[in-house]
Give the backbone structure.
Amino acid sequence: MSQMMDHLESYFRGFVPRRDELLLELEREAQTEGIPIVGPLVGELLFILTRATGAVNLLELGTAIGYSTIHLARGCLPALGRVTTLEWEESMAARARTNFVRAGLARHIEVRVGEALQLMAEMSGPFDFIFMDIDKESYLPALPHCRRLLKIGGLLFTDNVGFAGADSFNREIFAAADWRTVNLLGFLPLHSPEQDGLSLALRVK
Ligand SMILES: C[S@@+](CC[C@H](N)C(=O)[O-])C[C@H]1O[C@@H](n2cnc3c(N)ncnc32)[C@H](O)[C@@H]1O
């Protein structure tokens, strides 16, 4: 049968990954306070990608309350991996640290407080995996830092590339010879927003 199912969005809502009580609580907090988090589908995708690639050194740009960070850290746990996550709001960083203790992951995560581009300029790699989820106008200026810090063969995963502010980033990475990239337009239940683009980019040079 080549016919599509009716009501695809409500159909796929039935396959949202299961979460534990801590993640459900963070989702409720995010919803109540209007904190934009990746939600369970992209969270699970981060877990799967980090686990499947055997990533050990991970960098996250944009921590908020640590929801996506927990998925990254759980993904890299068997490889004894570590996540460095960057957040410019001290209050968010403090809440994230508390959540990492609650998740039993505090030893695997370092939160650095500051503006992501400035912090990256002072960092050295190589990282195996970078997850970018900061203000969209910073995506393009962050790209040279990501290229420098990511190993060849490393993965740059970027959220919210359907936002107007990500347009210059999308064009630049698509044109660059250093990256092989795909943009996925998806229906992402409980993601902020639920219809958005994700960028997966492999550093090849
Ligand atoms: C979309 S939220 C991150 C959500 C988180 N990744 C998750 O899914 O659980 C973006 C966070 O990055 C922080 N942020 C935005 N731009 C930033 C920048 N240029 N440098 C550092 N932090 C930034 C914001 O304060 C906010 O907490």
